[in-house]
Amino acid sequence: MTRTLSQLENQNEFIARHIGPSPQQQEKMLQTIGAGSLPALIDAIVPQDIRLPELPAVGEAITEQQALAELKAIAGRNKRFKSWIGMGYSAVITPPVILRNLLENPGWYTAYTPYQPEVSQGRLEALLNFQQVTLDLTGMDIASASLLDEATAAAEAMAMAKRVSKLKNANKFFVADDVHPQTLDVVRTRAETFGFELIIDAAEKAVDHQDLFGVLLQYCGTRGHLHDYRILLLRSGSVKSLSAWPPILWRWCC
């Protein structure tokens, strides 16, 4: 049978994609618990003081194409300006292969359930790729991207450096003064909780301090500067201090 293009288009609303109980299954479930209807069940178990007096005006159900068009129209009202702040948030060209397979992979956001495990699965795949690229670029034996943000990871790196440092009596942690301010804030808070002494100074001054159990460096710095840390890392390693530096992968490739 011949069909027109409009007939072949997916006209189903998003709400129809939810795989839930059928009307017959709902009726059986309600009978089992002794409820006459779904609204009656809600009236019996949900307190009135937390319920809206009327349903929100969300409009009629729409298709995927309509939803995407509306979302793009809303996003189109944003005014885009150049940001000169930096601080780790730099405008870069994302390769289409990464956009399509990770950030814009339909398999990660068109879930058939309201819990969207696919979104979690997509995030896990992105983290796995990030870890692998980190290993490839650094030559390290292991990499972990299990934390949600750079600041938290830096604070955890400080805590780990203290635990594994061979300088058991050392209680000082050095932080380069060009670390992103949001990272420094979290590290400072965690250091206070742990009782660590935090030293904040120019990166090259790290070798001037004694009894450091760790060093946190930024590459590149929050003001956009690139540093050659090779000599510094060799010296800090010779005195058994552990170094940590948040990765910005595209800058490692320069």
Question: What would you say about this model in short?
Answer:
Pfam families: GDC-P (PF02347). The chain is α/β, with parallel strands linked by helices and 254 residues long. It has helices at 5-8, 23-33, 38-45, 64-75, 96-103, 106-109, 117-138, 150-164, 181-194, 230-238, 249-252, and strands at 172-176, 197-201, 212-216, 242-244.
What is the count of β-strands? Answer: 4
CATH level-4 homologous superfamily of the largest domain:
Type I PLP-dependent aspartate aminotransferase-like (Major domain)
| Share of β-strand residues | 5-15%
Uncertain runs: none
Mind telling me which CATH architecture of the largest domain this is?
A: 3-Layer(aba) Sandwich
Structural class: alpha/beta
Q: Give the CATH level 1 class of the largest domain.
A: Alpha Beta
The averaged pLDDT comes out at 82
How do the strands line up in the largest sheet?
2-1-3-4
Number of helices: 11
Radius of gyration: 27 Å
Percent range for helical residues? 40-55%
Topology-level CATH name of the largest domain: Aspartate Aminotransferase, domain 2
H/E element string? HHHHHHHHEHEEHEH
Overall domain count: 3
